[in-house]
Design brief:
This protein has about 230 residues and is α+β, with helices and mostly antiparallel strands. Helices cover about 15% and strands about 30% of the residues. The mean pLDDT is about 95.
């Protein structure tokens, strides 16, 4: 799964890199989490031009009778999104990218879940594949939401977790957003990123609490407590 990510580049730098007029703030985000409004890049509805917009993380299908779902749809499996009723129409017509400087996964330890940060080895921006949707119901305020597509992990991520976000190469940005891109090409884009493109490091378990969203989340984890030898053996 992918349930948290890091985005700390300045908004002006992101806008220039992604070819959009401006970029939603506030930034930086050290602990971007589900149910928050976060930036995605998509084709502007009705014009086809590329834009950045802040959407809520947690996908609500357009046909849902209510703006809530029994389970928060943070992720969509790349292998089934094209056929699953929840995501099928969005995959066909409303694909997006979620820019990130890194994403987090957790390893279970005796001291509790330990977060690990995955970043590009050359410091490049990561483009997480996503789907977005607009929900509008009677007597309710319309809103837009998104989910991140996940795929099988590469060797780096597999050491920590059995899934990873699908990462779209920067040169394929427009291919991914274009509704006319052939399905077989889209499938090729959704495989795991080459292992050499990512490196991982453990970060502070302060990140486990979504209320914490500052640079201290990126600090190294505290040392494990030493075992007390009572000399009773």
């Amino acid at each position: 799964m992918c349930t948290r990510f890091l985005l700390r580049r300045p908004a002006a730098e992101l806008a220039a890199a992604l070819g959009v007029a401006d970029f939603p703030s506030p930034l930086p985000r050290y602990n971007a989490a589900p149910q928050q409004h976060l930036p995605v890049v998509r084709r502007r509805p009705g014009s086809g031009r590329r834009e950045a917009a802040a959407l809520r993380w947690g996908f609500v299908p357009g046909w849902s009778p209510t703006p809530t779902t029994p389970t928060l749809l943070v992720n969509a499996r790349a292998e089934t999104a094209t056929t699953k009723a929840t995501f099928r129409d969005a995959f066909r017509h409303r694909r997006c990218l979620v820019p990130a400087d890194g994403f987090y996964e957790w390893r279970r330890t005796a001291a509790g879940p330990m977060p690990w940060l995955f970043e590009h080895t050359a410091g490049q921006l990561l483009l997480l594949a996503g789907l977005w949707e607009r929900w509008a119901g009677p007597d309710a305020e319309p809103f837009e939401s998104f989910a991140v597509l996940t795929t099988t992990p590469n060797a780096v991520v597999a050491a920590i977790h059995d899934r990873m976000p699908a990462l779209i190469p920067a040169p394929s940005l427009d291919e991914w957003l274009d509704p006319l891109t052939p399905p077989e090409r889209l499938a090729a884009l959704l495989g795991p990123a080459p292992a050499g493109e990512l490196h991982a490091r453990p970060v502070h378990p302060r990140l486990n609490n979504t209320a914490h969203d500052d640079a201290s989340c990126l600090a190294p984890p505290p040392p494990a407590p030493a075992q007390l030898d009572l000399g009773l053996g």
